Amino acid sequence: MTDIRLAIGLVALMSGLMVMSNILAIVFGLRLKRLLRDVPCIESYDDLYDLKAEVRVQMHGALLGIALICLTLLVTITGTILYGRMFFFVAMLMFSLYVITAFWLSSLETKVRAIPVSNEEFQKERDHITHVWVKKAFPDW
């Protein structure tokens, strides 16, 4: 009886972590959609400020998302070791739902990185912001 309770607990924990990861990705995706709506073109320093502020939030959110995915992976490995392939297949089914959300979020990030700019100075700053977003864990501004 304890064995089945542990299995159910691991599935519930894994499900909860995946739901939290999906919710996090959706919330951050909606924030990017709002940025794209509010700043269709970088024409002022206020627009650059908005971009920087959103990228900062996205970078911190990505770290939280990575932590959630790592915990989910740890639970998946534990469940697979204890309960075999069936647990692994359940985990992959749930993970496939997250992959769909991640593709959607990735496409929004690509659109934000390509926001048009009105002059070369803003382009250099936008390029720096997007470079930091992609290459570093924390913003440098």
Question: Which spans of ≥5 residues are poorly predicted at pLDDT below 50?
Answer: none
Beta-strand content bin = under 5%
How many extended strands? 0
Content-based structural category? mainly alpha
Shape: elongated
Integer average pLDDT: 94
Task: Determine the fraction of residues in helical runs and give it as a percent range.
Answer: over 70%
Total helices: the number is 4
Oligomer: single chain
The H-and-E topology, N to C, reads as HHHH
Keywords: Membrane, Transmembrane, Transmembrane helix
Protein model, in words:
It is a single chain. It contains four helices and no strands. It is an all-alpha fold and 141 residues long. It has one domain. The protein starts with a helix and ends in a 6-residue tail after the last helix. 86% of the residues lie in helices and 0% in strands. Helix 1 packs antiparallel against helix 2 and helix 2 runs parallel beside helix 4. The longest helix has 39 residues.
Structure at a glance:
This protein has 141 residues and is mainly alpha-helical.
Provide the descriptors you would attach to this structure in a database record.
single chain; 141 residues; mainly alpha; 4 helices; elongated; membrane; transmembrane; transmembrane helix
